Amino acid sequence: MNTLKTLTPTPVRRLVGHELRILVSLSLWVTRRRHGVRHAGDLAFGHARGQAAIMYGLTFVCVVESFGMAVLLRNWPTAHAVMLVVDVYGVILMIGLHAASVTRPHVLSPDALRVRQGAHRDLRIPLALITAVRSERRFTHEPAAGVLDLPVASTTSLTLELAGPVTTTGLLGKQREVTTVRLHADEPDRLATALRERLAALPGPSGAGTGAAPHAGAN
Predict the structure, then answer these.
(1) Residues 6 or more apart whose Cβ sits within 8 Å of residue 122
(2) Is residue 73 within 8 Å of residue 79, measured between CB atoms?
(3) Which of 34, 122, 133, 148 could form a disulfide with 219 if both were Cys (CB 3.0 to 4.6 A apart)?
(4) How far apart are CA 27 and CA 99, in angstroms?
(5) What are phi and psi of 114, to 5 degrees?
(6) Shortest CA distance to 110 belongs to which of 41, 175, 157?
């Protein structure tokens, strides 16, 4: 197993892991369970509502395309069978992408905020690092050093400023440090209020979570 892991490039392993998370998310969606909401003090905040119409529309297009290819290739059984498998798997992945966003909400625990973007990003931010919470809706996101954007349908609704960097890992394994995180939530005001309450309850002279903390990990 270790030899296989060593011989397999990191991007390939990351992509396989991503698809596995998508397939697991489908089972969670069917059984109405959520990933990462484990303890009584955990608060979940969805972020999939804004993309639902788009994802269902794309899934419908994939189904129509699959039907069209089936008709075109009906006289070539081998090609028809291969494309049918590819098309069906594509539809499953498309549904799974949305299922991952539904079943993997942002999670606010007593000591950290876990922000997600479907099965693509999963970052744990210690509350002690958060210095500011701003409700701001943004529709454009230019790449910037030290900034992590987690838009849904090209939109973010909350901005978090951090006292120190956290390390985030991209889909293919590239890591970078960020001190600003912009994310989307279906109910941004509710998340901002709950987050400010947790920050105010932190021990320390300011009660605002401005103390130093070690770098946070990301998956």
Answers:
(1) 104, 114, 115, 116, 218, 219
(2) yes
(3) 122
(4) 9
(5) -100, 110
(6) 41
CB 37 within 8 A of CB 103: no
Question: Look-up: residue for tokens 């608060």?
Answer: 43
> Other C-beta atoms within 10 Å of 155: how many?
15
Paired tokens of 135: 């409700």
Query: b/e per residue, 177-207, with b = 16+ CB within 10 A?
Result: ebbbbbbbbbebeebbeebeebbeebeeeee
The 10s digit of each residue's pLDDT in 123-167 is 999 999 999 999 999 998 888 899 999 999 999 999 999 999 999
- The tens digit of pLDDT for each residue in 12-25 reads 888 888 999 999 99
Closest CA to 110 of 9, 199, 21: 199
Instruction: Round the CA-based radius of gyration of the chain to a whole number and report it.
Output: 20
- pLDDT-flagged residues of the chain (< 70): 1-7, 204-219
